[in-house]
Amino acid sequence: MKFIIVTGLSGAGRSQALKRLEDMGYFCVDNLPPKLIPEFAKICLHNDDIVKAATVVDMRMGDMFDDIYAAIKRLKEMMEIELSILYLDASDEALVKRFKETRRMHPLSHDGKITTGITLERGKLRRIKDLANNTIDTTTYSLKKLGEAMDRLFNEDSDKGILITVTTFGYKRGIPIDADMVFDMRFLPNPFYQEELREHTGEEQNVKEFVLSFPRARIFIDKINELVNYVAPYYLEQDKKQLIIAIGCTGGMHRSVVVAEELYKIFMSQGHRVTIEHRDLRRDP
């Protein structure tokens, strides 16, 4: 039986993720005390109608949360259980905005400051984040985009090898917090300083031709491809079913986009499951 523990920061989308799993046929329970989770799993195992189940574990349960690590150990000892841990993350700025919009208090914000609660929660969740099989950074996600990410990770095709996500970003807005590998394209000449290319993006042919005209770009793409294909089997060996590759440049509009699009085509041609997203492409004028 597939069994998913959903956890992560308050405001990062845990409840919506659980609803999506329910839509996908998972038997779901929210905010179950960790000591009861192995018993919940046993009950599901003895019900022929339940082939996959999920629960949310978070800091709403206070000190009881610390029991989750013993529960995870017990679940891993149950031969009939295929356990996955999903961790939902987001930037402090995004979380503060969400709490203000909903006018809710952070569960750990005892002094009334949302940022205090976020900082405390990050510290308390650090260990379980390290145990997670999959991490989703929802900073820029709509509900629709979160649902699509859940589908990619937990639909029936998720057993067909690792899912490679190639994402681009601009360093001036920070590195994606869920990245497994980060590659810096700022060693390549910047199309921004070519007047005829400045207002275009790496999705357009003229920018692509400019970036790829430098041999170092092609060589580096080949080296990234070689490295990813080397480590991918070892990620699966460690039960990590998603590999997030972040490609960055100054603004996230030109060099990173060209390189990411090339990697996407290469990975697709090799038969990998792969998705691509450009985080900052539409932000700059």
Give a written overview of the molecule.
This protein is an alpha/beta fold. The protein has two domains: 2-159, P-loop containing nucleotide triphosphate hydrolases (Rossmann fold, 3-Layer(aba) Sandwich), CATH 3.40.50; 163-278, no CATH class. 41% of the residues lie in helices and 19% in strands. The strands form two sheets. The protein has a five-stranded parallel sheet, with helices on both faces. Strands 7-8-6-9 form a four-stranded parallel sheet. β2 (27-29), α2 (37-45) and β3 (52-56) form a beta-alpha-beta unit. α1 packs across α6. The N and C termini lie far apart (49 Å). 35% of the residues are buried.
Named at the architecture level, the CATH assignment of the largest domain is 3-Layer(aba) Sandwich
Q: Supply the CATH class of the largest domain.
A: Alpha Beta
Net shape? globular
What's the count of strands?
9
Based on secondary structure, the structural category is: alpha/beta
**Main pleated-sheet profile:** 5 strands, parallel
Q: Mean pLDDT across all residues, rounded?
A: 90
